[in-house]
Every structure is written in C-alpha cells, then in structure tokens.
User: Fold this.
Amino acid sequence: MAPMLSPPPPRLPAARILVIQFRQIGDVLLSTPVLRALRAAYPHSHIAFLAEPSPARVLQGNTLLDEIILRPRRTTWREDWGLIRRIRRQRFDLVIDLIGNPRSAVLARLSGAPHRLAFARFPRSLLYTMLVSHHQPAPEYTVTKRLRLLEPLGIQATDLTPMLPYGTREQDEVTAFVHTQAITPQDLLIGIDPTHHVPTRQWPGASFSALVDLLSTRLGARVVLLWGPGEAEAVQAIAAAARAQPALIPAWGLQTLAAFLARADVFIGCNSSPLHIAVSQGIPTLSIMGATLSANWLPPTPQHRAVLAGLPCQPCEQNHCGPPLDIACLRTLTPETVFAAVEACAPWVPKLQRRQAARRAHEG
Assistant:
C-alpha cells in the first residue's frame, strides 16, 4: 500500500504582499521566480517589491508586480524610519524577506504586517512569524532555495527561470549593433563577461584575451565583450591584448543586454549578474568559478556549466586570498582548459557542433 502523503499547508490569506531584496542586480533578478510563484498563488493580490535603485532596474516592465518601492543604497536610521512609516500606511498582510539582514529584519518587524516570513538566522529570527531552515544537506541553487521559502504558504514552485523582459526598442538597439559589427545569423556569437569586483571571482584579463583568440581562430566565433559601469577601461585592455579584436557592447541598460544575450549562442564569464541575465534568456552558459560553489549559482541543468581548476581549497567562499595561494584557483586555470569546456557545450549549441565538425574535417 502506497504511503499517504500529507496535504500541503493551507494557503495563507494575503491581499497585500511585500517582498524585500535590497541589493545586487543578480540577487534581485534571481528573486523573480518567487514573484512568478506568488502571482500564480495570489492572482488578485497587490504585490510590491522593495529594492535599491540600481538592482531595481531588472524589475522594470515586470508585469508580475504592482509596485516597486525604492530604498537608497545608503540611508540613516531616520530615513529608514520614514520608509517604514510609508510601508506601514500600506497595511501589508505578508512580508517576505529574501535578504534577511539586520535592517531588513527590523523593517519587516516594524512594517505592521501580521505575517513575516524569512530564513532562520538567530537572533534575527525573533523578528519574524514564519521561518524556514537556512541550510540543506546538499548544495542548493539559490533560486531553489528562495522558492523553498514559500513552502509555509502552501506554494510548491518548480520554475527556476529568472525573468528580465525587454521590448522592441531594446531589440532594435541590438539589431543596429550587430549590423554595425557585421555579425550575421550564421555566425557563432559568444558573449563574454570578463570582469568581477571580487578578486577571488576574477579570472586574469590576460587569460580572457587568450581565450578570445582561441575561440576566434579555432571556431571562427564572433566574440563580444560585456561591461558595465566602471568596467570600460579594464575590458578595453582585455580587447586590445587579443589579436582577434573582439567587439565591446555599447553603454547599454540591463534590458538591452538581455536582448543581446537572447541573440547570442553561448555566454562565458565570471559569476556575476550577466551570468544570471544569460540564464534568464535561455542560452547555454559557462561560468569560470574561483572561490564560489558553482552549485549555489547555476541552474541544475546540463546546459549551464562551470569550469574550475579543481584545487583542494575550492570552494573557499572567501573574497580574498593571500600567500602562498594568491588566488591559485583562477591563476592556474588555463585558457586551453576553458576552451575545452566551451567545446563540451556543443550538445546545446548547434552552431558550435557545426564548427567542431568543420574543424575536424579540416584537420583530417
């Protein structure tokens, strides 16, 4: 006789819901599957999202939301109290705190919402009414973890895809760019994000330059380098050091970057927000991992892969690395190793399969 399954908990009534994720573009983007699940469970509820202005850009045009509430990056407690008063006036029934830091915990507690949900982190746990375990026995993709936070609400969600919508204006910008670069639909188009502000996640620029040349000479790929605010000079230096002369994207917004990645065949890069934007657009990705655990940041599907040196110290989850290692996990990862990992993506990239076949025929 089959075991009886316990029924899911009853759905919590909530006419007004507030979701909190203050910062990081990637973290806000990776919270959008939570919004999808909430909207499916609460189709008529008012759903608001509280974030800082820069990461809140990924929510522009998101039809799942009724409201975006902005909190400046740096605030005093006095300014936060003004924000709390504004939130209290909205009379939210439910607050879901995805970030769970001290300020968000206090804000959730003072919001006036009778139901406050977060991951258990003592002593902040005392400020919530519903808690979910922060830890799991095995590594967990961060989107899976965030969706697990909804289980006390009776929501079982399985769609892990982040959402970053764009419109015809962004598509037209991308079309104009690829036309200027003489990139055709037949070209194998690879977008590379070669920068990260954390040293233990930054593959050396010289290695990226060498990888660009390998992709160009061996696969005939058209490589486009991605960059964001404050990164132009570093990316220009990487491009200048490559013989293949890769193109650089213009100073695009996040929605236009999403439109470009939707047109690309493969994404390669560090573990940062462009990776998650690429995932949102459904293209295969290859992440160059240093100190971070890839299982936490990559969807559990074969077309999203990581390449790493495989040193015993990986992953250390540290932002700095001193002697005697000096970030050996990234320094010893060779362009040839990363190139081989790119070629291993062929089952999900038809153009790459054709380029490999042509290369083998030429060498034979």
